[in-house]
Amino acid sequence: MDRRDFLKYSAALGGLMQAAWLQAASDDAPRYARIAAAWRGPNPSDPYFAGVLVADWAAKKLSISHAVPLPTRPHGLMPEADGSLLVGGARPGAWLMRFDAQGKVMQQLNLADEKSAARLNGHTVLSSRGEVIYSTETDRANSRGRIGVRDRISLKKIDEWDSHGLEPHQLLLDENGHLMIANGGILRTEADKKYDLHRMDSSLVRLDGQSGQLLRQWKLDDQRLSLRHLAWSHWPSANKNLLGIAMQAEHDDKARRAEAPVLAVLDGDDLRIPTQANDGFGYAGDIAPAYNGGFAFSSNQVGLTQLWHPGMPEKLSKIVELQEAYAVTGWGGPNPGGGVLVATALGLVRWHPSAKPVLLPWPEKMAVDNHWVLLSEA
């Protein structure tokens, strides 16, 4: 069943599931959550939007606060301190757009106007000093990975750094303000088609956040594992921060892909694959911090979100099983926190280790894209 057919089917099924799940809402949870998201209508040809969704747990309702039309499909979303949101086009991205907390477009940058031959790979992050924004990019002339250094106000590129790899995807800051970059390692055509997978060169890189100097690079033994999405999680009992990396297998053999691990973890300076348990498909999508140093990560190909915890590093626990489970973001919930919000074909699913699950159906027929971000809760 494809996404379009499933959404038609879910209209009938949703009412039955809604009653059962909504009765499970926790009385001691926050009343609402505001989530930055991007979505389109139920059909692949429908236009894309970005904006803010509001989950009212007490009213058992999910609504759209505002929605901004987008030029093409988006990818990553970067909330800003003043309430605005920065959105970029999906790979090969040709635009950046910023709109304010009410949904008014403030800026739109067309990358075709820049002298650089680079195009966006989907993610941005603000520097530790707040003066520049870093963007993952690929130079179309030679396929090398680039980190665009952009003025925070104008969004114009003021510098460009080597990502020391192919196809940099997501990037985050570490506690020292340095860049942690997942180089996916895949060569792609102008039409975004993969080629020469035997030449894959995936890596995790740390760059100096002020100079762009290479500080450290990590590689896994299996270069057909593409490192893609990143999340930090704090492990209180060990008083350390762990970096989770969601991976996607690119092996030629389907059976080998199905057996491939989907999670890598950077613990200090040690990059390792903590478990061979996987999703049966070899494709982890989004990733978010979860309970006590753990990670929740999705596998939309099989409709599954799983939990990994450093206290039981060889195991994965299924926490959400619904078709099209993809975008995930952390959710505090009742003490001690550590829950997640998961976008599925049916709607928003709220999971927490000490609260009962909740499903809020979409406010209209819509397909949420790969990522969303919790803005606030109260």
Cα shape: globular
Mean pLDDT: 91
Biggest sheet character: 4 strands, antiparallel
Distance between the termini: 38 Å
Radius of gyration: 20 Å
The secondary structure category is mainly beta
Oligomeric state of the chains?
single chain
Total individual domains? 2
Q: Strands of the biggest beta sheet: in what spatial order?
A: 3-2-1-30
- Report the uncertain regions: 1-26
Task: Show the helix and strand layout.
Blueprint: H1 3-22, E1 32-40, E2 48-56, E3 61-69, E4 74-79, E5 85-89, E6 95-99, E7 105-110, E8 118-126, E9 132-139, E10 144-151, E11 157-166, E12 168-173, E13 179-183, E14 187-188, E15 194-195, E16 203-207, E17 214-218, E18 225-235, E19 240-249, H2 254-258, E20 263-267, E21 270-272, E22 287-290, E23 294-299, E24 304-308, E25 317-320, E26 328-331, E27 339-343, E28 347-352, E29 355-361, E30 367-377
Antiparallel strand pairs: 1-2, 1-30, 2-3, 4-5, 5-6, 6-7, 8-9, 9-10, 10-11, 12-13, 13-16, 14-15, 16-17, 18-19, 19-20, 20-21, 22-23, 23-24, 24-25, 26-27, 27-28, 28-29
